[in-house]
Structures are given as C-alpha cells and as structure tokens.
Write a structure and sequence with these properties.
The chain is an alpha+beta fold. It contains three helices and three strands. It has a three-stranded antiparallel β-sheet.
Length: 90
C-alpha cells in the first residue's frame, strides 16, 4: 500500500500532532511540496475525518510546534534546492 500524501500543511501538522510522522517531502513543482506520511490513508482515515469535520481536539501549543516543524522542513528543503539569487527552473 502506498503511504498517504497531502499538500495541506495544516492537516499534516494535525497528523503529526496525533502521533504520525512525515517520512518524506516530495517536490511536485518548483517550490511546491507534498508531505508523505508514515501510513496509508486507510490507517489515517479517522484522524483525517475528525480534522475536516472539525471534531478534532488539540492542545494548541503542541499543534503549533508541529506546524513550525513542517514549515522549517519546507524552508530548509527550498533553500537547499534553490539557493538565494538563483532563478527557479520549471
């Protein structure tokens, strides 16, 4: 089974908060990434449904920490692939 992917940083942050992990960051276009999670969608369905149906209960600071981790991951990956002052190639 293929692991679940999403480009939604807020959903990915929630899934990390729930104890899942991001295995990989894949670039789908220049500076556009998807998060590859550690499990297939079937294993994440309950958490995904709770998130989109607004039934999710969170501890705000832990969620913000997960969001900051993902933003840092994207920032570092972008800066590695596209150093400052270099044009982006499509």
């Amino acid at each position: 089974m293929q692991n679940y992917t999403t480009s939604d940083i807020y959903l990915a942050s929630y899934l990390i908060y729930r104890g899942h992990s991001v295995d990989e960051l894949q670039e789908i276009k220049p500076r556009k990434y998807v998060f590859v999670l550690d499990k297939p969608k079937a294993d994440l369905d309950a958490d995904i449904t709770d998130f989109y149906q607004r039934r999710a209960s969170i501890e705000p600071m832990e969620y913000v920490t997960a969001l900051k981790q993902l933003k840092s991951l994207v920032y570092n990956e972008t800066n590695t692939r596209y150093p400052a002052n270099q044009p982006v190639r499509s």
